[in-house]
Amino acid sequence: MMYSNSKQSYPFLFVVLLAACCLSIYNVVSAALPPSNLVMYTIDQQTFTTFNMTVINITSGVVNSTTLPILQNNMWFGRFLGVDNNDNLIILIGNNKGANALATISQSGKLLNDPVNRNAVYLVVGSGPQLYVYDFANSSTDDIQLTIPDQQSTTSPTGCFDGVDNYYFMQADNTFSQFLLSSYSFSDQKQHDTLNVTGIAPNSLTYLFSANKQVYVLGYNLSQTTDMSLYLLDTDQATATLSYSDQNTGLAIGLSSYVWFSDNYFVYLSMSSSSSTNQYYLTTVDLNTNQVISHSQVQGTFNTNPNISGVY
Questions:
Q1: Per-residue pLDDT reduced to its tens digit, 212-241
Q2: Where does residue 174 rank: exposed (0-12), middle (13-18), buried (19+ CB within 10 A)?
Q3: Does a structural domain hold residue 4?
Q4: Signal peptide: which range, if any (predicted)?
Q5: Is residue 8 situated within a structural domain?
Q6: Of 79, 91, 65, 75, nearest to 24 (Cα)?
Q7: What percent of the chain shows pLDDT beyond 70?
Q8: CA distance 63 to 299
Q9: Total domain count for the chain?
Q10: What is the rounded distance in angstroms from the CA atom of residue 173 to the CA atom of residue 206?
């Protein structure tokens, strides 16, 4: 599940479904400006008639929140998919009957009717595993059977599209010390060899992302769950090289709410605790240099577990 946070159009959107949380994976381009805002959507869980839209300026940390009427009855937010050429937000939405749709929403929260240039969503799921396809253009679904060598594992596979032809997926064994990588090629419609990835610290819970025309592995130390490492993955050699790390983000593994990719930038939320309050920070890393380019304290309150979130 790729989609783009850049303001260019791509024919497909790829999304990864995990066991405990869902997260979106991007097909992106480099040499772009860093994202300016973090947007969060949270549906009122009591009435289901309104949702809260929170926008945080990544550089200043200023928080602005607005309560808006729900876009459709019985609607839920599935995923933040990026920004179109008119600075409107593209959202994957669903309803309680299992139907899914792509919605374009203005930055003021208004539902727009203009079409978006995407026609499919892909999910890699733990059963099989399978690559599951939602085809919005033809109102159909399909699934592609994948294989991983027999092994005991307590995690579902994670995956991402490389922006060219390949969907990569990886799964750890039950000791979290062996990481198996495979790929499915959309050009020849075949799964390719499974490789054992080296370079990832053992005892890591891992997730795959595509960003900056590369494949990255984000790992969390299972013994110290606030310890986060970002690796650049050589998909040909199956080797991972450490790009960036934060040994104490202050937040235990919470991938769907706390990390975002946009073009050649990686943004994450961290927290420091005092005797009286928790202080939250947004950090932006340039993936071209692996250097921090901004670090700001969030200046206000916000929901740390929104239904969906993204940067633009």
A1: 889 999 999 999 889 999 999 999 999 999
A2: exposed
A3: no
A4: 1-31
A5: no
A6: 79
A7: 78
A8: 6
A9: 1
A10: 11
